[in-house]
Design goal:
Blueprint lengths: L10 H8 L5 H17 L13 H12 L4 H8 L3 H4 L4 H8 L1 H15 L7 H14 L3 H16 L6 H21 L3 H15 L1 H36 L4 E5 L3 H11 L3 H5 L2 E7 L2 H14 L8 E2 L12 E6 L5 E8 H8 L1 H9 L7 H17 L20 E5 L5 E5 L4 H8 L1 H5 L1 E6 L2 E3 L11 E5 L16 H33 L9 H11 L4 H9 L5 H8 L7 H6 L3 E3 L7 E3 L11 E6 L3 E6 L3 H6 L6 E2 L1 E3 L7 E10 L4 H11 L3 E8 L6 E10 L2 H12 L4 E7 L2
Parallel strand pairs: 2-5, 11-16, 12-14
Antiparallel strand pairs: 1-2, 3-4, 4-5, 6-7, 8-9, 8-10, 13-14, 13-15, 17-19, 17-20, 18-19
The chain binds manganese (II) ion.
Length: 711
């Protein structure tokens, strides 16, 4: 019941045919690839029983019919050797050059993608991913030719696999061919997919089509004649084509619109191509004079193009034999764009000015491909090595379950984590890309399988903001940091308030609920936590709030002098920051500066930055180091050393010998050949620790001078 695959011509016969458009040296190259592939596949057979080499040869021949170049034909002949034999990419590259090896590798990569899900949305993503992964259009063309030959020989394959491949062809490959404007391949893929997926429906429908065809041809001929006559009379130059629907498109229309075969098939389609836009409207007027238009069916896609850039006039007429006639009217230019799906997508997506050269070239290339298909164009010009990125703005990656996610180009593992789920983003600690552990900032590439590793206690890191690019990730990280900051600010605020209250001989614990209620009413604040966070962030003064709570008058000046210091532990989080200018460490005399909205910043007592603001007593808080600080603090030191080989290593060893980490180091040899200056940022626990380190460094004979840098 299925068509026989058809006897394949001998290889030698095909080479002769191909030499019709390829140069002799190119044919020779392709022949070498053929013999190499034949040897590699020797002993392997197709499901049909044919020697395996018959398949790559047929694939190459499909591409030769499109007049593809010798690299593409060689790659087509070799397209299965990497997957099915021992041959490596390096070997192909050595024998046939890198472009051919890249093509074979590209096709093999596409083969490795598994299509597990068949939901509609996923099919669309698969199609886009396939296109995105093949940066060279020839890879897609080889893949489509491969699929076409597999479909032509699908009858030999067992039924379950046959159905799966047919479904995949209809879902994935036929739409790609359609999009690329490869109409011949598109229709054959659909008809074969239909044949193998629904053999019974296919049989009924093709029988009906056959018996209706004779009558139909007659009608089409008569209508075409009438149209041509009328246009001639009006003096309009135009090409009129009768359009015949292929089997699967009839079936699809019946199913989608719930129509009978007669209803779908009885519609006659004509396309009329003219030289310019005014002619389009002239044709429309002439035809509406010839046959009556069906009301409500006229659409002007010239004035208002479709989103993908498609332009045409559509109208439906009452035909002479009782059947409707669908008419499309367009210019030559519009026709080309309508046929080159993907290319027209680019052309209209960006404005002409920003349309890059590559896209223009590819558009031309696809157009010339179309011309060759319709038998008019020149055969050699488009055989350039075109690298194109069909979807330049997006990357497509897999989740561990095989679902495809689309992310903007440049997205990192953290963006991926947030796009899966907010909780996954908030708790991610590491990522496995294609089963390999990678840093979270890793930029994702097409086709990668991404697995996020989470930990229940993990939290977003402010540093992620430096490399996430999706709005979702950014806003979730910001939101999280903000809520953490307000918690930490509230804790600091409570300590500041307690300190202010202690001067008034009470404490936060002794304040009654009623006192808080009254304060909230008086100030209009939302909650106690908000007030405490405001104090921590410097938006409210602790002394003022303390007096308000105790319903005392507003005279904080006096108490201020008696307020005891706030203890700084270094573990306050984002509410307390240590100034970058003077880098205070425990043991340094310090002072707190409340900066509105940022919380408290700790400076050293003698920091010049603080001298200016000191005059404003509302902003300055008396602080002291808590007896126990566990955090490591950054401190800067400057060393003048003898400029000798290995001196940096010696200094670094002394520093780590004193249990410190080096956060940053720069060396400048400005003192001439003999001395050099080194700047270190070190991590220390306190002044004592720093003193130990400096002592250890002084012991080195190469060290001339050490100073701590305070500004
Ligand atoms: Mn194959």
């Amino acid at each position: 019941m299925f068509p026989p695959a058809g006897a394949m011509p001998e290889a030698a016969t095909l080479f002769k045919e191909w030499s019709g458009y390829l140069k002799p040296e190119d044919v020779a190259r392709v022949e070498t690839a053929y013999h190499f592939s034949e040897a590699a596949h020797s002993g392997q057979f197709r499901a049909s029983g044919d020697p395996y080499i018959s398949h790559p040869l047929a694939v190459a021949n499909i591409l030769a019919e499109l007049h593809l170049d010798s690299q593409a034909l060689s790659a087509a002949l070799l397209h299965d050797v990497m997957e099915d034999t021992e041959v490596t990419k390096t070997e192909i590259s050595k024998k046939f050059g890198k472009p051919v090896a890249d093509l074979v590798d590209g096709v093999s990569k596409l083969d490795r993608i598994e299509f597990e899900t068949h939901e509609e949305a996923q099919a669309e993503n698969f199609r886009k991913m396939l296109l995105a992964m093949a940066r060279d259009v020839r890879v897609i063309l080889i893949k489509l030719a491969d699929r076409l030959h597999n479909m032509r020989t699908l009858g030999a394959v067992p039924v379950p696999k046959r159905k799966r491949i047919a479904r995949e062809t209809l879902d994935i490959y036929a739409p790609i061919a359609n999009r690329l404007g490869l109409n011949g391949i598109y229709q054959e893929l659909e008809d074969l997919g239909f044949l193998y997926l629904y053999p019974a429906r296919n049989r009924v429908l093709s029988k009906a089509l056959k018996s209706a065809r004779g009558n139909r041809r007659e009608v089409v001929g008569k209508v075409e004649e009438a149209i041509n006559k009328r246009l001639k009379k009006e003096g309009i130059e135009a090409l009129v084509h009768g359009r015949e629907k292929h089997l699967y498109s009839i079936y699809r229309k019946m199913r989608e619109k719930h129509l009978s075969f007669a209803k779908v098939h009885d519609v006659f389609g004509f396309r009329i191509i003219v030289k310019d836009v005014p002619s389009c409207y002239l044709v429309l007027g002439a035809l509406h004079g010839l046959y009556k238009p069906i009301p409500g069916k006229f659409k002007d896609y010239i004035a208002i193009p479709k989103a993908n850039g498609y332009q045409s006039l559509h109208t439906t007429l009452f035909g002479p034999f009782g059947s409707p006639i669908e008419i499309q009217i367009r210019t030559q230019e519009m026709h080309k764009i309508a046929e080159a799906g993907v290319a027209s997508h680019w052309l209209y997506k960006s404005t002409d000015a920003s349309l890059n050269e590559l896209q223009k070239k590819t558009h031309q290339w696809l157009q010339s491909l179309l011309e060759i298909q319709s038998g008019t164009g020149d055969s050699t010009e488009f055989l350039e090595h075109l690298k194109v990125d069909l979807f330049p703005d997006a990357v497509y990656v897999f989740t561990p379950k095989g679902k495809i996610l689309s992310l903007p180009r440049g997205a990192t593992a953290v963006d991926f984590a947030y796009s899966v789920h907010t909780d996954i983003g908030n708790r991610c600690v590491a990522v496995k890309i294609n089963d390999e552990l990678m840093p979270l900032r890793t930029e994702l590439k097409n086709g990668e399988r991404v697995e996020i590793i989470t930990a229940s206690h993990a939290k977003p890191n402010p540093l992620w903001l430096n490399y996430v690019i999706t709005a979702k990730a950014r806003s979730h990280i910001r939101h999280f940091l903000k809520s953490v900051q307000s918690q930490e600010s509230a804790q600091l605020g409570e300590r500041l308030l307690n300190q202010a209250l202690s001067v008034l001989r009470t404490g936060v614990a002794e304040i009654k609920e009623a006192q808080w209620e009254k304060l909230l009413k008086d100030t209009g604040a939302k909650s106690k936590a908000d007030i405490l966070a405001d104090i921590g962030l410097g938006k409210r003064l602790s002394v003022v709030v303390a007096r308000q709570l105790l319903s005392l008058g507003n005279a904080p000046g006096e108490e201020r002098r008696n307020v005891g210091p706030v203890m700084i532990r270094g573990s306050e989080g984002m509410a307390v920051q240590f100034a970058q200018c003077c880098k205070p460490i425990p043991g340094d005399p310090i002072i707190g500066l409340i900066s509105k909205g940022q919380g408290m910043i700790i400076h050293t007592h003698d920091c010049p930055v603080i001298v200016k603001t000191r005059a404003d007593p509302g902003k300055v808080i008396d602080v002291e180091w808590a007896p126990e600080t566990k955090k490591l603090f950054n401190v800067s030191i400057k060393l003048v050393v003898m400029n000798q080989r290995g001196v940096l290593a010696k200094v670094a060893a002394a520093i780590s010998g004193a249990d410190s980490n080096i956060d940053n180091v720069t060396v400048d040899p400005e003192l001439g050949d003999q001395y050099a200056t080194m700047h270190f940022t070190l991590q220390v626990f306190n002044r004592l620790h720093l003193a130990q380190i400096m002592r250890a460094l002084r012991r080195l004979p190469e060290v001339i001078r050490i100073t701590r840098v305070n500004n």
